[in-house]
Amino acid sequence: MEFNLWAQSIQARTESALEQLLPPSHIAPERLHQAMRYSILGGGKRVRALLAHAAGEFCGANAAHLDVAACAVEMIHAYSLVHDDMPCMDDDDLRRGKPSCHKQFDDATALLVGDALQTLAFELLSAADFGVSVQQKLTMTNLLAKCSGSRGMAGGQAIDLASVGLDLSQEQLEFMHIHKTGALIRAATLLGAYCADNQDKKKNAALDHYAKHMGLAFQVVDDILDTQADTATLGKTAGKDALDNKPTYVTILGLKRARELAKELHHNALSQLGDDAPRLTQLANYITERSY
User: Fold this and answer.
1) How high is the pLDDT of residue 253?
2) I need a surface site. Which of 36, 67, 142, 247 has the fewest CB within 10 A?
3) What are the structural domain ranges in the chain?
4) Half-sphere exposure of 202 (CA within 13 A, CB side)
5) Following CA atoms 268, 84, 90, 179 in sequence, which dihedral angle do they give, to the nearest 10 degrees?
6) Helix%, strand%, coil% for the chain, nearest 5
7) What is the per-residue pLDDT for 233?
8) What is the Cα 163 distance to its own chain's centre?
9) Per the omega criterion (within 30 degrees of 0), is the bond before 29 cis?
10) CA 130/CA 126 separation, integer angstroms
């Protein structure tokens, strides 16, 4: 119950921060700004925002600074979902329980929404009024850029598209998801840590270890839910990976072994944190035990 209340408070403050940081829908170009707000507001688990805040609390960061980091990574995540749903990618009509951006608006608008959300994320981290040091801004901007680009999330998506219909090994699948899903999970966690004025190398190393394992755990659970949950629960088309002949942890390992792997990754993620990181522990439990 305590964790649920904390998570709800972080989700609410992230929603409020996004409302303020996004361009108003009445400002030109109105349609683009309406689509940006449609694509990121009012939905989603905000796992990456929760990770940023949990890691930041662990390191003693200022909550207002964490809001900026959380919004930046949520914008990158939302842009990736908008592009991922387009006909040239995964071609999905449903996202977060409502029509995908390209279905609600059009393909060209959806493409621009992704572009605009991506650049706005970096605008936030580099803004003069962010409140952290110049060195922190540089470190955070560099991290998010690397984790979003060809050696991170975008590269993982490219590997995913090239892997349709292939029989991948577990190692190949992990390599793909370390980039596609795990890179942004890692970015969210470390962005929270980098908001702290005093950097603790030991804590940062433990958080990096945590994030790498939780990034994979998140994807394993996603693959399990894709075969077990329905569309209404997921807020996106259930069973689409199987329909698209994509390799997943379930198709490669089987359902039983995939569940075991999620538990192993959860255990490994927590192995270096110690007893003074209750929020991160609770968040790891939530990620591996969620139903959508």
Assistant:
1) 96
2) 142
3) 2-289
4) 3
5) -30
6) 70, 0, 25
7) 75
8) 21
9) yes
10) 7
Could you please report the per-residue DSSP string of 18-79?
HHHHSPPTTSSSHHHHHHHHHHHSS-S--HHHHHHHHHHHHHT--HHHHHHHHHHHHHHHHH
Residue 187 structure tokens = 């970015």
The residue among 105, 108, 116, 117 whose CA lies nearest residue 88 is 108
What does R_g of the chain's alpha carbons equal in angstroms? Answer: 18
Alpha-carbon dihedral sign for residues 153, 159, 163, 164:
positive
Higher pLDDT, 161 or 235: 161
Amino acid letter, 121: A
pLDDT of residue 200: 95
Amino acid identity, position 38: Y
Amino acid at 146: K
pLDDT of residue 260: 97
Q: Would you call 239 exposed, middle or buried from its count of C-beta atoms within 10 A (0-12, 13-18, 19+)?
A: middle
DSSP 95: E
pLDDT tens for each residue of 11-43: 999 999 999 999 999 999 999 999 999 999 998
* Average of per-residue pLDDT across 174-186: 97
Q: How far is CA 247 from the centre of its chain?
A: 20
Chain segment 226-274, per-residue pLDDT in tens: 888 788 777 777 777 777 888 999 999 999 999 999 999 999 999 999 8
